[in-house]
Task: structure prediction
Amino acid sequence: MIGAHLKNLAKLAMRNSPTLANPLWALAYPYIIRRDGTYFGSEYSDRASAFEQIFDENRWLSCESRSGRGSTLEYTKPLRKSLAKCLKDLEVRTFLDAPCGDFNWMQHVELPEGTNYIGGDILGRLVEELQQRYGGASRSFRQMDIVEGPLPKVDLWLCRDVLFHLPNQDVITVFHNFANSEIPFLLTTTYNFPKRNEDIRPGGFRFINLQIPPFHLPRPLSRITDFIAPEPPRYLGLWSKDQVRAALNVG
Ligand SMILES: C[S@@+](CC[C@H](N)C(=O)[O-])C[C@H]1O[C@@H](n2cnc3c(N)ncnc32)[C@H](O)[C@@H]1O
Result:
Protein backbone atom coordinates (compact mmCIF):
# COMPACT_ATOMS: atom_id res chain seq x y z
CA MET A 1 0.00 0.00 0.00
CA ILE A 2 2.71 2.49 1.05
CA GLY A 3 4.88 1.13 -1.77
CA ALA A 4 2.17 1.83 -4.37
CA HIS A 5 1.62 5.29 -2.92
CA LEU A 6 5.34 6.11 -3.13
CA LYS A 7 5.45 4.79 -6.67
CA ASN A 8 2.58 7.10 -7.71
CA LEU A 9 4.25 10.06 -6.03
CA ALA A 10 7.51 9.32 -7.86
CA LYS A 11 5.61 9.11 -11.17
CA LEU A 12 3.92 12.44 -10.52
CA ALA A 13 7.22 14.09 -9.60
CA MET A 14 8.83 12.76 -12.78
CA ARG A 15 5.98 14.01 -14.96
CA ASN A 16 6.04 17.44 -13.34
CA SER A 17 9.75 18.11 -13.84
CA PRO A 18 10.75 16.40 -17.09
CA THR A 19 13.85 18.57 -17.62
CA LEU A 20 15.38 17.08 -14.50
CA ALA A 21 13.71 13.68 -14.48
CA ASN A 22 14.10 12.61 -18.13
CA PRO A 23 17.93 12.56 -18.32
CA LEU A 24 18.19 10.86 -14.91
CA TRP A 25 15.60 8.31 -15.94
CA ALA A 26 17.39 7.65 -19.24
CA LEU A 27 20.59 6.89 -17.28
CA ALA A 28 18.86 4.69 -14.73
CA TYR A 29 16.49 2.83 -17.05
CA PRO A 30 18.91 0.18 -18.45
CA TYR A 31 19.72 -0.91 -14.88
CA ILE A 32 16.10 -1.00 -13.79
CA ILE A 33 14.37 -2.93 -16.58
CA ARG A 34 13.91 -6.60 -15.95
CA ARG A 35 12.02 -7.57 -19.12
CA ASP A 36 13.27 -6.71 -22.58
CA GLY A 37 9.70 -6.06 -23.77
CA THR A 38 10.05 -8.12 -26.94
CA TYR A 39 6.89 -9.48 -28.51
CA PHE A 40 7.69 -11.58 -31.56
CA GLY A 41 4.27 -11.20 -33.19
CA SER A 42 4.21 -14.88 -34.23
CA GLU A 43 0.48 -14.67 -34.93
CA TYR A 44 0.98 -12.17 -37.76
CA SER A 45 1.88 -13.06 -41.33
CA ASP A 46 2.22 -10.03 -43.61
CA ARG A 47 2.53 -6.31 -42.87
CA ALA A 48 -0.77 -5.17 -44.32
CA SER A 49 -2.98 -7.66 -42.49
CA ALA A 50 -1.01 -7.39 -39.23
CA PHE A 51 -1.47 -3.63 -38.97
CA GLU A 52 -5.07 -3.81 -40.17
CA GLN A 53 -5.89 -6.27 -37.40
CA ILE A 54 -4.05 -4.19 -34.79
CA PHE A 55 -5.92 -1.06 -35.88
CA ASP A 56 -9.37 -2.67 -36.19
CA GLU A 57 -9.12 -4.30 -32.77
CA ASN A 58 -7.32 -1.39 -31.09
CA ARG A 59 -4.59 -3.80 -30.01
CA TRP A 60 -2.29 -1.02 -28.85
CA LEU A 61 -4.89 -0.36 -26.18
CA SER A 62 -5.21 3.40 -26.01
CA CYS A 63 -8.68 4.85 -25.56
CA GLU A 64 -7.52 8.10 -27.18
CA SER A 65 -5.48 7.02 -30.23
CA ARG A 66 -5.58 3.88 -32.37
CA SER A 67 -1.86 4.46 -32.88
CA GLY A 68 -1.19 3.61 -29.25
CA ARG A 69 -0.21 5.18 -25.95
CA GLY A 70 2.79 6.96 -27.49
CA SER A 71 0.44 8.95 -29.72
CA THR A 72 -1.76 10.63 -27.13
CA LEU A 73 -1.82 14.38 -26.60
CA GLU A 74 -0.35 14.08 -23.11
CA TYR A 75 2.53 11.86 -24.23
CA THR A 76 3.41 14.06 -27.21
CA LYS A 77 3.14 17.42 -25.47
CA PRO A 78 6.94 18.06 -25.29
CA LEU A 79 7.47 16.39 -28.67
CA ARG A 80 5.01 18.67 -30.47
CA LYS A 81 6.99 21.70 -29.34
CA SER A 82 10.41 20.22 -30.18
CA LEU A 83 9.23 19.01 -33.58
CA ALA A 84 7.84 22.44 -34.50
CA LYS A 85 11.25 23.94 -33.64
CA CYS A 86 13.10 21.29 -35.64
CA LEU A 87 10.95 21.95 -38.73
CA LYS A 88 11.65 25.66 -38.40
CA ASP A 89 15.41 25.19 -37.88
CA LEU A 90 15.69 22.92 -40.91
CA GLU A 91 13.56 25.33 -42.97
CA VAL A 92 11.28 22.50 -43.95
CA ARG A 93 8.76 23.37 -46.66
CA THR A 94 7.66 19.85 -47.60
CA PHE A 95 7.22 17.30 -44.85
CA LEU A 96 6.49 13.57 -45.01
CA ASP A 97 4.95 11.96 -41.92
CA ALA A 98 4.94 8.23 -42.65
CA PRO A 99 3.45 6.41 -40.96
CA CYS A 100 0.94 9.05 -39.91
CA GLY A 101 -1.25 6.59 -37.98
CA ASP A 102 -4.54 8.22 -36.97
CA PHE A 103 -3.04 11.78 -37.05
CA ASN A 104 -4.16 12.21 -33.44
CA TRP A 105 -1.27 14.34 -32.19
CA MET A 106 0.23 15.58 -35.46
CA GLN A 107 -2.86 17.70 -36.20
CA HIS A 108 -1.80 19.85 -33.21
CA VAL A 109 1.79 20.47 -34.35
CA GLU A 110 2.41 24.02 -35.45
CA LEU A 111 3.94 23.59 -38.88
CA PRO A 112 5.85 26.59 -40.29
CA GLU A 113 3.58 28.68 -42.49
CA GLY A 114 3.29 27.38 -46.03
CA THR A 115 4.51 23.87 -45.15
CA ASN A 116 3.21 21.14 -47.39
CA TYR A 117 2.32 18.10 -45.26
CA ILE A 118 2.03 14.55 -46.65
CA GLY A 119 0.76 11.83 -44.32
CA GLY A 120 1.28 8.22 -45.43
CA ASP A 121 0.23 4.92 -43.92
CA ILE A 122 -0.08 1.31 -45.05
CA LEU A 123 -3.78 1.30 -44.09
CA GLY A 124 -5.80 2.38 -47.14
CA ARG A 125 -9.10 2.84 -45.33
CA LEU A 126 -7.47 4.98 -42.67
CA VAL A 127 -5.75 7.36 -45.11
CA GLU A 128 -8.96 7.74 -47.13
CA GLU A 129 -10.78 8.76 -43.97
CA LEU A 130 -7.98 11.17 -42.99
CA GLN A 131 -7.95 12.69 -46.48
CA GLN A 132 -11.69 13.35 -46.29
CA ARG A 133 -11.52 14.77 -42.80
CA TYR A 134 -8.26 16.72 -42.81
CA GLY A 135 -7.07 16.89 -46.45
CA GLY A 136 -6.71 20.33 -48.05
CA ALA A 137 -4.54 22.51 -50.26
CA SER A 138 -1.38 21.99 -48.19
CA ARG A 139 -2.24 18.69 -46.49
CA SER A 140 -2.74 15.32 -48.13
CA PHE A 141 -2.84 11.69 -47.06
CA ARG A 142 -1.95 8.66 -49.16
CA GLN A 143 -1.56 4.95 -48.83
CA MET A 144 2.12 4.11 -48.69
CA ASP A 145 4.20 1.12 -47.69
CA ILE A 146 7.55 2.48 -46.52
CA VAL A 147 9.16 -0.94 -47.04
CA GLU A 148 8.04 -1.08 -50.67
CA GLY A 149 8.50 2.59 -51.48
CA PRO A 150 8.91 4.77 -53.44
CA LEU A 151 9.00 7.77 -51.13
CA PRO A 152 7.91 11.22 -52.32
CA LYS A 153 10.43 14.05 -52.63
CA VAL A 154 10.30 16.17 -49.45
CA ASP A 155 12.68 18.17 -47.22
CA LEU A 156 12.23 15.93 -44.15
CA TRP A 157 10.78 12.48 -43.46
CA LEU A 158 9.42 11.76 -39.99
CA CYS A 159 9.18 7.99 -39.49
CA ARG A 160 7.98 7.69 -35.91
CA ASP A 161 7.10 4.58 -33.94
CA VAL A 162 7.09 1.99 -36.68
CA LEU A 163 10.56 0.53 -37.28
CA PHE A 164 10.33 -1.18 -33.87
CA HIS A 165 7.31 -3.10 -35.24
CA LEU A 166 9.11 -4.36 -38.37
CA PRO A 167 11.55 -7.26 -38.97
CA ASN A 168 15.23 -6.28 -39.17
CA GLN A 169 15.38 -6.97 -42.92
CA ASP A 170 12.38 -4.67 -43.53
CA VAL A 171 14.08 -1.92 -41.52
CA ILE A 172 17.18 -2.27 -43.70
CA THR A 173 14.96 -2.08 -46.82
CA VAL A 174 13.37 1.10 -45.44
CA PHE A 175 16.86 2.60 -45.10
CA HIS A 176 17.66 1.61 -48.71
CA ASN A 177 14.44 3.32 -49.83
CA PHE A 178 15.49 6.44 -47.98
CA ALA A 179 19.00 6.20 -49.47
CA ASN A 180 17.48 6.00 -52.97
CA SER A 181 14.98 8.80 -52.37
CA GLU A 182 15.31 12.53 -52.91
CA ILE A 183 14.83 13.23 -49.21
CA PRO A 184 17.82 14.80 -47.45
CA PHE A 185 16.88 14.06 -43.81
CA LEU A 186 15.22 11.29 -41.82
CA LEU A 187 13.91 11.71 -38.27
CA THR A 188 13.15 8.33 -36.72
CA THR A 189 12.66 6.51 -33.43
CA THR A 190 15.60 4.88 -31.68
CA TYR A 191 16.43 3.72 -28.15
CA ASN A 192 19.89 3.87 -26.57
CA PHE A 193 19.75 0.96 -24.21
CA PRO A 194 19.17 -2.29 -26.19
CA LYS A 195 22.44 -4.16 -26.64
CA ARG A 196 20.92 -6.34 -29.35
CA ASN A 197 18.17 -5.89 -31.95
CA GLU A 198 15.92 -8.92 -31.70
CA ASP A 199 14.25 -10.01 -34.92
CA ILE A 200 10.46 -10.02 -34.99
CA ARG A 201 7.56 -10.49 -37.39
CA PRO A 202 5.68 -7.46 -38.75
CA GLY A 203 3.32 -6.30 -36.00
CA GLY A 204 5.59 -7.54 -33.19
CA PHE A 205 7.68 -5.22 -31.02
CA ARG A 206 11.19 -4.89 -29.70
CA PHE A 207 13.12 -1.91 -28.44
CA ILE A 208 15.26 -0.91 -31.40
CA ASN A 209 18.72 0.65 -31.33
CA LEU A 210 19.61 1.94 -34.78
CA GLN A 211 23.27 2.48 -33.88
CA ILE A 212 24.10 -1.20 -33.39
CA PRO A 213 24.01 -4.27 -35.73
CA PRO A 214 22.45 -4.98 -38.12
CA PHE A 215 21.76 -1.26 -38.79
CA HIS A 216 25.02 0.48 -37.84
CA LEU A 217 23.77 4.06 -38.14
CA PRO A 218 26.29 6.60 -36.80
CA ARG A 219 25.50 9.10 -34.06
CA PRO A 220 22.52 11.17 -35.19
CA LEU A 221 23.13 14.79 -36.19
CA SER A 222 20.75 15.72 -33.39
CA ARG A 223 17.96 14.12 -31.45
CA ILE A 224 14.61 14.99 -29.97
CA THR A 225 13.57 13.51 -26.64
CA ASP A 226 10.38 11.51 -27.21
CA PHE A 227 9.36 10.14 -23.81
CA ILE A 228 8.06 11.24 -20.48
CA ALA A 229 9.53 9.43 -17.47
CA PRO A 230 8.72 6.75 -16.35
CA GLU A 231 8.05 5.61 -19.95
CA PRO A 232 11.05 3.86 -21.60
CA PRO A 233 13.52 6.53 -22.79
CA ARG A 234 13.60 6.95 -26.53
CA TYR A 235 14.48 9.60 -29.08
CA LEU A 236 13.84 10.75 -32.60
CA GLY A 237 17.28 10.74 -34.21
CA LEU A 238 17.99 13.00 -37.17
CA TRP A 239 20.14 11.38 -39.87
CA SER A 240 21.17 12.72 -43.26
CA LYS A 241 20.86 10.64 -46.39
CA ASP A 242 24.67 10.61 -46.73
CA GLN A 243 25.03 9.11 -43.24
CA VAL A 244 22.52 6.39 -44.02
CA ARG A 245 24.12 5.66 -47.41
CA ALA A 246 27.51 5.29 -45.71
CA ALA A 247 26.04 2.92 -43.10
CA LEU A 248 24.53 0.81 -45.89
CA ASN A 249 27.77 0.90 -47.87
CA VAL A 250 26.10 2.34 -50.93
CA GLY A 251 28.30 4.72 -52.91
C1 LIG B 1 2.42 3.00 -33.63
S1 LIG B 1 1.65 3.71 -35.05
C2 LIG B 1 2.54 5.24 -35.16
C3 LIG B 1 1.85 6.25 -36.00
C4 LIG B 1 2.45 7.68 -35.99
N1 LIG B 1 3.77 7.72 -36.52
C5 LIG B 1 2.42 8.29 -34.61
O1 LIG B 1 3.47 8.73 -34.13
O2 LIG B 1 1.32 8.38 -34.04
C6 LIG B 1 2.34 2.72 -36.36
C7 LIG B 1 1.68 2.95 -37.69
O3 LIG B 1 2.52 2.36 -38.70
C8 LIG B 1 1.73 1.94 -39.77
N2 LIG B 1 2.57 1.03 -40.60
C9 LIG B 1 3.05 -0.17 -40.27
N3 LIG B 1 3.85 -0.66 -41.25
C10 LIG B 1 3.86 0.27 -42.23
C11 LIG B 1 4.50 0.34 -43.49
N4 LIG B 1 5.27 -0.66 -43.94
N5 LIG B 1 4.32 1.44 -44.25
C12 LIG B 1 3.52 2.47 -43.80
N6 LIG B 1 2.88 2.45 -42.62
C13 LIG B 1 3.06 1.37 -41.82
C14 LIG B 1 0.56 1.27 -39.06
O4 LIG B 1 -0.55 1.12 -39.89
C15 LIG B 1 0.33 2.28 -37.91
O5 LIG B 1 -0.61 3.25 -38.30
Residues 47, 51, 67-68, 71, 98-101, 121-123, 144-147, 160-162 surround S-adenosylmethionine (CB under 6 Å). The mean pLDDT is 94.
